[in-house]
Design brief:
Blueprint lengths: L12 E8 L3 E8 L2 E9 L4 H17 L8 E9 L2 E3 L4 E3 L13 H9 L3 E5 H13 L5 E6 L3 E7 L2 E2 L31 H4 L1 H7 L7 H10 L3 H25 L3 E5 L7 H15 L3 H6 L5 E3 L6 H8 L3
Parallel strand pairs: 1-4, 4-7, 8-11, 11-12
Antiparallel strand pairs: 1-2, 2-3, 5-6, 8-9, 9-10
Helix pairs in contact: 1-2, 3-10, 6-7, 7-8
The structure holds zinc ion (ZN).
Length: 312
């Protein structure tokens, strides 16, 4: 990732962005001319002590890199699942990382452990900030993260929108199928049960570690079952795009998550579905949602980058 941060960092200054996930945590050190080091390890989800140990060891690892030798780490930004109070540096309801309690004082705890100021952001918000910077997006952008669940991050008029309770963009829990599958949130038929990465692997449990790639290849070579699974899933993803497009009218809707490993064919399928949905609606056609979707490249460390950018 080539980024010019010379206007933001001193010549020997570096900052670290960290993406804490349910299974893996990734840390990236950024210097004035971009990335200077990347490290990752499995997330220790044994409460605040586990997360602090995971982050501290990654920071130590980055500090020991020869590339980091001439830099002083001045701040750490952490993107984390859950409801984040950025001002207080606390996280609540980070259930899948072992932080189910409310107002866990993670920023202060990690700052004490590392000796560096720490700021927190919600992981999807961080990914949105990072992806918008990485792709050179406008100030009006939404990101749909297709992973275990489905959530969206929002930047409106240049400002991340997190909402009154920190739950802005939780479109995965908008009901999509009346009386559909039961959702852990207590409702039925929620969109994330049909449009997430997890929904795809549940419907197409083939292809080992790359079910989406396997599904796409099978559908495109005429496998009728694969085509049916792919069409249902793409229809649900297109619904998520339409929800955001019609609610916010953002300039770009970015698609992120492991599923983007499929690359261009995924974007073609999604654009095709959006065009089909608009076929009989002049209103939808003039929205041009198919031309507003973009994929965040797999391997771009956008969540870590966005977490780092929140330290400024
Ligand atoms: Zn739900």
């Amino acid at each position: 990732m080539n980024l010019d941060l010379t206007n933001m960092l001193g010549p020997s200054e570096a900052r670290i962005g960290i993406d804490v996930g349910g299974t893996k945590t990734q840390a990236v050190a950024f210097g004035p001319s971009g990335e200077i080091g990347v490290a990752h390890r499995p997330t220790d989800t044994a409460g605040i002590a586990g997360i602090t140990a995971t982050v501290s060891s990654l920071v130590d690892e980055l500090r020991l890199l020869p590339e980091a030798d001439s830099h002083t780490i001045s701040a750490i930004g952490i993107g984390i699942p859950g409801i984040v109070d950025t001002a207080a540096g606390t996280v609540s309801h980070g259930v899948n990382i072992g932080l189910a309690e409310s107002d866990v004082p993670l920023a202060a705890t990690i700052s004490r452990a590392t000796g560096v100021p720490v700021s927190l952001a919600n992981d999807v918000t961080a990914a949105t900030i990072g992806a918008a910077r990485y792709l050179g997006s406008s100030d009006d952008v939404a990101l749909i993260s297709l992973g275990t669940g489905l959530a969206s991050g929002l930047i409106l008029d240049g400002i991340p929108r997190t909402g009154k309770l920190g739950s802005a963009g939780e479109i995965g829990h908008i009901p999509y199928i009346p009386d559909g599958l039961p959702c852990p949130c207590g409702q039925r038929g929620c969109l994330e049960l049909y449009a997430s990465g997890h929904a795809l692997t549940r419907a197409w449990p083939q292809g080992g570690k790359h079910p989406a790639t396997h599904l796409m290849a099978a559908a495109r070579t005429g496998d009728a079952d694969a085509r049916s699974v792919l069409d249902s899933w793409i229809h649900a993803v297109a619904h998520a795009v339409t929800l955001l497009g019609l609610t916010l009218d953002v300039q770009e809707i970015l698609i992120a998550g492991g599923i983007t490993e499929v690359g261009a064919p995924l974007l073609e399928e999604l654009r095709g579905q959006l065009r089909r949905s608009a076929e009989h609606s002049q209103f939808l056609r003039q929205m041009g949602l198919d031309s507003r979707v973009r994929l965040v490249p797999r391997g771009a460390h956008v969540a870590a980058l966005g977490a780092c950018l929140t330290t400024f």
